[in-house]
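Exercise 7. Predict the structure of Mitochondrial glyco protein from Peltaster fructicola.
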Amino acid sequence: MFAARIVARAAPRFASRTLTASSRITIASTSRQVQARLQVPSTVSKYFSTSRPRFDASAQELAAKLENELSLENEGSEGVATLSEENVKSFLEGHDWELVDVEGESGVKLTRKYDDETIEVQFTVADFPPQYGEEDEMDEALLDEEDLDGQSGGANSKAAVAQGRTSGGNIKVGQNDNVAPGDRDELRDAEDENAGSQQPFPASVTVNIRRQGKQGVLRFELVAEDGEFSVQAITPLTDAEAAAAEQSGYTGAEKSWNGPPFQQLDEELQSFFENYLSERGIDSALALIVPDYIDVKEQKEYLGWLKKVRDFVD
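Solution. The predicted structure, encoded as tokens:
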């Protein structure tokens, strides 16, 4: 394109030097050649304008940061299965649940057969807490401050304090006053037990039970937390209502009455419902695995999100 510009600029000067009264035909021929050459830059410029590299500094910085985040995430998980991943794998191998997990979708399904019933469990990665991991760090910092505040003299002095507090909030006094709190055996054992373990968080779970030859769905709204399910509501739905509830993101059919609060039912009736669910595999093993799978799913979707955004801005 640069050479074409030189030719175009030099052509008029060349034509003026060779202009005479007897060379009008030559000039006309030269003019046509010059016009043809002048048309070249527009074509070349148009071609290069569609494939020019990006020089947007903000886009380059963002792409580099996304790539760095992606590398860190991959390095941290490469070849190493997390505790959540191991729990999920063990559960799926030891139970007859069929997993339905579509990449890019937040919802997860587990399905199984029981006699003439089809049981479908639904939960979503949206229940993954955004502040996950921050609360523990904050609690540790607060405990450190409390320990420092409590060591103000007397039995609370450095020479007399051994790590820990009594149930009443008083500092425990022991013989190992010269041992740093973090180096004490009982604390190390507790930390080892909790290393790699996931702090539990509540997860909403919807269970839909369908029976062959019967219309409608019996829906249970549950919360999985600390290895237990707590029933929130039990609602019989028509097939149309169940389909509408699923399309709305497993939040339920707004026009349907969800039934009485479960805790207001007769205690014996509550127990029968809980046994009914447990017999169908809605038990403590499943309640434990739901938060684990949400953890695994969230990480997988996060990696996919990083890749897609990086590829777009890069």
